[in-house]
Write a structure and sequence with these properties.
- The chain is built from nine helices and nine strands.
- It is of the alpha/beta class and 253 residues long.
- It is globular and about 55 Å long.
- The structure holds NADP nicotinamide-adenine-dinucleotide phosphate.
C-alpha cells in the first residue's frame, strides 16, 4: 500500500535495466520506496543497477528476476514470482526495442521482433499482472508508450505501430480497471537521450531519462491518465495528428 503521503512503497519494473526505468527507480527509492523487483534479460546488469539503488537507500529490499518479454510461455510463472513477497503498488512497463526501420521494413523476422517485444510481450505480461492488481484492489500500471504512437511516420512506422498497439491496449485496460482501485498511466515521451537512442542525432525538443522519470513521478502524484514528456508535445502532436497527409508526408520527421 502507498504510505500516508501517497508515496509508492513497492514496485515491479519490467525492463529494470532501461535508462528511463533506472532514473525512475532512483527517484522512487529517494521517495521512500521499500521493496523493488527489477526484471530483465541480464541478471548481472540488474544486480549492478540494484547495487547503485542500495547505495542510495541502504536496507531496501531489491530482488532481480529474469524476464524476456518475448518468452510468452514463461510470463504467468514470472508474474507469480514477482508478486511472491506481497502486494505491489506500482508496475512499470519499460522494456522495448527501437529496431532499425530501414532494415526491418525489408526483414519480416526483425519487424516481427519489434512488434513481439513492444506489443505482444507487453500484452502477455499485462494480462496476468492486471489480474493480480485487480485482486489486491490497488496499484498503478505505468506504460512507456511514445509520441511515435500518435501518428504513423515513415521514419519509424514499425516501432510506432508496436507502440500504438500498446498504447491502445493500455487505454482500454485503464477503462476496464476503472473502479477496481487500479489505475493505468500512459507515458508518451518524445526523443530521450538513452542507450536506445545513443546512435541517433538529437532532434529539437529532446529530453533525457531523468526528465522522463521526473514526469512519471509527478504523474503518479497527480494520478494522471496520460503524461507527455516534455508537456508541450501534447499540443505539437495534437496539431500533427490533424495535418492532411500530403503535408504530413513532406515533414522531416
Ligand atoms: N529513449 C527514447 O527516446 C524513448 C522515447 C519514447 C519511449 N521510449 C520507451 O521507453 C522505454 C525505455 O526505453 P529507454 O529509452 O530507457 O531505453 P533502454 O535503456 O534501451 O531500455 C530498454 C530496455 O528494454 C529491454 N529489453 C529489450 N528487449 C527486451 C526483451 N525481449 N525482454 C526484456 N527486456 C527487453 C532492454 O534490455 P537489454 O539490456 O536486455 O537489451 C533495455 O533494458 C522503452 O519502452 C522505449 O520504447 C523511449
Amino acid at each position: 500500500m502507498k504510505n500516508a503521503l501517497g508515496s509508492v512503497q513497492s514496485a515491479l519494473i519490467l525492463g529494470g535495466d532501461s535508462d528511463i526505468a533506472f532514473a525512475t527507480s532512483k527517484r522512487l527509492v529517494r521517495d521512500r520506496l521499500r521493496r523493488l523487483v527489477l526484471a530483465g534479460r541480464s541478471i548481472e546488469r540488474l544486480q549492478a543497477r540494484a547495487a547503485e539503488l542500495e547505495a542510495i537507500a541502504p536496507g531496501i529490499d531489491i530482488r532481480c528476476l529474469t524476464l524476456d518479454a518475448t518468452d510468452f510461455a514463461s510470463h504467468s510463472e514470472f508474474v507469480d514470482a514477482a508478486f511472491e513477497k506481497g502486494d505491489l503498488d506500482l508496475v512499470l512497463v519499460a522494456f522495448g526495442v527501437l529496431g532499425n526501420q530501414l532494415e526491418d521494413e525489408h526483414d519480416a523476422a526483425s519487424a516481427i521482433g519489434v512488434i513481439q517485444t513492444n506489443f505482444t510481450g507487453a500484452v502477455s505480461l499485462l494480462v496476468p499482472t492486471a489480474d493480480r492488481l485487480r485482486d489486491q484492489g490497488h496499484g498503478t500500471i505505468v506504460v512507456l508508450s511514445t509520441v511515435a504512437a500518435e501518428r504513423a511516420r515513415r521514419s519509424n512506422y514499425i516501432y510506432g505501430a508496436s507502440k500504438a498497439g500498446l498504447d491502445w491496449f493500455s487505454q482500454g485496460l485503464g477503462d476496464a480497471l476503472h473502479g477496481s482501485g487500479v489505475d493505468v498511466m500512459i507515458v508518451r515521451p518524445g526523443f530521450a537521450t538513452t542507450k536506445m537512442t545513443g546512435d541517433l542525432d538529437t532532434p529539437p525538443m529532446a529530453t533525457d531519462a531523468d526528465s522522463v522519470a521526473a514526469a512519471i513521478v509527478d504523474g503518479l502524484r497527480k494520478q494522471s491518465d496520460v503524461v507527455w514528456v516534455p508537456g508541450k508535445l501534447r499540443w505539437v502532436m495534437s496539431v500533427l495528428r490533424h495535418l492532411p497527409r500530403p503535408i504530413f508526408r513532406r515533414l522531416p520527421i
